[in-house]
Write a structure and sequence with these properties.
Length: 228
């Protein structure tokens, strides 16, 4: 996959360090044709796991912001590879222009021929600036699934996953930083959408199937039903 160029393409011209005022006043994708649902929760809360079920039953295209960043990080000649690597290891949020551009490109590549699409965006937005910028310039979301999980449960899951994941951030030191970032930077995003009554809050302890039942029930209350 070619490395991203933030200053070219058919999407809005995005400068490496723009202020929010440079955001387009209208979104690239029409929310009447494109459905966006975010899935958020702390590191290890089960976003990826639940996403697989949602893809199977609801026909979502799953876009993981973390996966897109890791892919870009590993892309030969990427201008942002080292930067992404450093941010991920430190559990910090990569500058939004990079993540938003990666998501926008992935959405465009996965639109149906009639311009419609149904996207489950996993692990994004993680910071208020990303949320505002994406909603204004790419596509407003329908709702956010929030997987509510205690830190001790997430920590245990991540350390267990770390035995085989090969992820540079599934270790004690990075996990502590990721939790801090989640509480200080990402929770305000969930709170913001909750104020707009756009959050499906699901307790994320217990079995995967049990959590999924909570997700399905919550989505039904927002008028989102399985497609298959
Ligand atoms: N309900 C559950 N019970 C037990 N283990 C679970 C549950 N849900 C997920 N896991 C396991 O916990 C680990 C983390 O899950 P997952 O990768 O889905 O989390 P995540 O929120 O996507 O994490 P990250 O934000 O770090 O990418 C995985 O090893 C997964 O198999
Ligand atoms: O919007 C985002 C999403 C993720 N990141 C960085 O990636 C890692 C890993 O994300 P996962 O969702 O756990 O796979 C995260 O800790 C951030 O460093 C980001 O910067 N912006």
């Amino acid at each position: 996959m070619p490395a991203i160029d933030l200053t070219t393409g058919t999407s809005p011209l995005v400068q490496p360090e723009p202020s929010l005022s440079s955001a387009n006043t209208f979104p690239v994708f029409d929310p009447q044709k494109v459905t966006v649902v975010y899935i958020l929760g702390g590191p290890g809360s089960g976003k990826g796991t639940q996403s697989a079920y949602l893809v199977r039953d609801y026909g979502f295209v799953h876009l993981s912001a973390g996966d897109l960043l890791r892919q870009e990080q590993d892309t030969k000649d990427s201008k942002y590879g080292q930067l992404i690597k450093d941010y991920i290891k430190d559990g910090k949020i990569v500058p939004m222009e990079i993540t938003v551009k990666l998501l926008e490109n992935a959405m465009r590549a996965n639109l149906d021929s009639d311009g419609t699409g149904k996207f489950l965006i996993d692990g994004f937005p993680r910071k208020m600036d990303q949320a505002m910028f994406f909603e204004q310039s790419v596509c407003p979301s329908r709702c956010t699934i929030f997987l509510d999980c205690p830190e001790d449960v997430m920590r245990e899951r991540l350390l267990d996953r770390g035995k085989t994941s090969g992820r540079a951030d599934d270790n004690e030191e990075s996990i502590i930083k990721r939790f801090k970032t989640f509480v200080e930077t990402s929770m305000p995003v969930v709170d913001h959408f909750a104020e707009e009554d756009k959050v499906v809050r699901v307790p994320a302890v217990g079995t995967v199937q049990g959590v999924y039942e909570g997700v399905v029930e919550g989505l039904a209350k927002k008028g989102i039903a399985p497609s298959k």
